[in-house]
Give the backbone structure.
Amino acid sequence: MKKIFLRSFYQLLFAICLVNVHSIYAQSAMGPNRINEMVARFKNDVRGPYKDIRWFCTDGSVRQPKDPCPERIGPGQQHARYKDEVVSLAQSNHIFLGQILAYTTNEELWDVTHNHSRLKQYQLDKYLRLVDNGWINQKGQYYRGALQVEDEEARGISFYKWLLAKDELLEREFYFIRQTLKDVPHNGDDNIAQQMRSESKVVSDQYTPFMDLRTKIHSQPEVSDIQKVIDFKNKHQQVLTVDLTKKINALVVTMQTFFKPLDIQALLNSSNLVQGTALGDKVLAFSKGLDVNKTPSYLVNETGQLLFEIREGLLLEKRPLARLQLLDISLKLEELLFKNASLWEPTTVAGQLEKICALTTASVGAGYLELWEWEQIAGVLSQYGQEKLSLAELTTILETARAAVEWSAAMVKANYQEVIDVYTTFEPKAYAFIDDRIRGSIALHLGESVGELGNFIAKESALTNKVLDIVNQSTFRGLNPGYAFGELVVVDGSSEDIEVSSDKIYIFQRSPSDLKPVAGIATVAEGNMVSHVQLLARNLGIPNAALSDGNLQSLKKYDGDRVFYAVSNKGNVILKPESEMTAEERALFVKKERNTDKIEVPIEKIQLKNTEVLNMRNVDANDSGALCGPKAANLGQLKKMFPDQVVEGLVIPFGIFRDHMDQRMPGQSVSYWEFLNAMFAEAERMRNTAVTEPEVENYQLLQLETLRNAIKQMPLKEDFMVQLDKSFKQVLGADFGDIPVFLRSDTNMEDLKEFTGAGLNLTLFNVLDKEKILNGIKEVWASPYTERSFKWRQKYLLNPENVFPSILVIPSVDVDYSGVLITKGINSGNEEDLTIAFSRGAGGAVDGQSAETYTVYANEGYRLLAPAREPLYNTLPITGGTAKKVATFQTRVVNEKNIREIKNLAKTIRMTLADETNSDYDGAYDVELGFKDDKLWLFQIRPFVENKKALSSGYLESITPKINTGKEIPLSTKL
């Protein structure tokens, strides 16, 4: 009761502080510069983020530091109070500096409404203190009494006793909970591996010659590195400062602790609640096994298996503190494996495959992969016992293992990226946190082993990458073919505010969701292969590849260099300096008449006289490019073919837009339409008088901005609004403004035979309010005149002035998950296979989300290419707008029943769509769909357009090796 009372008092005190501070500090969010200034002040403040120290007594009283709680009311706790501005920052920005656990309730620390941000910030604070000499406590880290270690540890145990009692949380948040144990004190725990990496980073930051040793310690730490650090100190003793010498000595002590042999028996003895249980017996058997066999291969295999078994059996153990002890054992096992994995040096292919399988098993046990994901790939990775495998089978193993590395890294990013993005705005050192977590994980050794297998397979298949002089090139993989020449731009960080150029080649951590034209692209987080950005790249022959984070770091030194970049039809990658280009490669970029590569928007059948709002049931594929764009026409066609799986809808045709454009434009002596055409005419005149293209483009963009703003203010005609009101009631079955709808831009420039236009114009989600719908219609009409949309079509269309928007209005379906079906195996290259990519919530997979992706084979079965790793997803409330929910990854998105339904849908589309639409199109289709309560809903269908020029390029064919995939390789082959 006393503890409950004390905790309640703390909560009340914290609330009172917030109320008092409210009158002093503005509660609007504080900007990054002000927070940065605050952090700088705290670094030089002997109390850091703390105001003073008080005794917090069991009866709720607060006493001076020299006036402890009397014995009659209990001992109480002594710790600091936060400065007022720290409390204010917590309220205005949800940023918590210098957190004291004894000052924090379980619910506050778990912070469920903000995706556990507060607990993640606690972990990040620990990291920053290690790499930045105490960070905000640089001078205040020895502020006596600010916190008591024993109180913090007791609070940590209490927190985990509360948290680990919840089965659903442990199952759903296994990775994150296990990671927090590395940072939240709970009875003598430590994170010695992170401390070792942090201390080596601090030394190299202060003394550059130490960088090579730091890299070694970060990437492949070995016990022999201790002597290397000692030798380094002795060699450089004359120039090292006293402070640096102390830091190196501290690093040596940390390394000696890290490499001290782990006493499993002692660990088990300290875990008294685990002894005698099923998992406790397995730990004991593991310990006895190591006494007999100490070979690295045995240790890695057995450690990985035990990690896996602890994770699998954890939910069967119902006692929270026993679970805590098992998780602590799990962390020590991961540390043991991390120290010993590099000592296992396989000499044969079989040995390398076995090591990869063992490390992947361990990654599952440590939470970097989910259990269901392991079920999908275990069969592929467990083939090391075979006598021989074909080159195709080995390549599949390589691709699967490489994917496991990527999924592991993505798990770290999915959990921490949001918090890192916030902190990086005011503390750049926070950016390295994710890299530190990945480097301290099993994924580090798994990635190295996969790279070694990749090098072997590359030699056997002659499918080698040639990427400048960087190491581990086998982790590059082409996503779609093409070639480019231009300046290389390496973006290590957020790409959303990057202004791209159409003649440059970009390396991104993650491509921006509204990417403008570029010459070439490669990404660490590719999102998914059917996002709008990926489809545009594939459509337009823009070379596109995936790479590892390590590859990106290696390429940073070439940022700004002019390079040649090519991806072959089989996915091998070439990236070389301009000076090494061959005559054939230079000839690819000889200036040609651009019009030979451009496409003309067909306007011969367009019907602009129709100014009636249409029932979607009354349009079909024949109306595409005539009354409306292909979205509405094709969805109307699907409504006829699949009436129960397509919503009702309204179509605002081209003619209504064109009719409104004949109104007088405000501030001008001409109509909107005349203004638009005058702009194109003036641009052509400028070109004919030798004005440079950038000047012409700048003129056009300024004029389009004027037009776009004017369209957004355009008055809507009365008869049109009357039609809308009537159509909502008759077709959608609700009054205008009573049902949330999607407003989808649907232009005549989309889904042409040679140009997809995917995602270039505006879609408004779940709009309910009548006024917002009316304003949204004008926003959608204006969207083809945005800079991004204009640049894409200006680059690829002969007549960009003849672009007309229609609008598809459909009621919202708050789907559980949604995504894309391509009626072709993009990864397999088989026309009869399928590719599907789904994310949780609405709008899945199209905006570059990290989506759950499969190849579904034409005969039987399917293959998981990637799991979803998107931490948030969209929901569509009936009140309109969008909301975000937190995703977890312990279950798959798409189930077996869904896959069967999608397969049947694809079969029907292939068999009937061409006949139903009197079309001679025989290619693949791109279908957007979703599931609500396991019911399939169709939202769009369009041709899947690929760049025929890239696919048939003689040069790309010449760099694509002919591979004998049936070649058999004995697994006893030496590496």
Observations:
- Residues 677 and 801 are 7 Å apart (CA to CA).
- DSSP finds 34 helices and 26 strands in the chain.
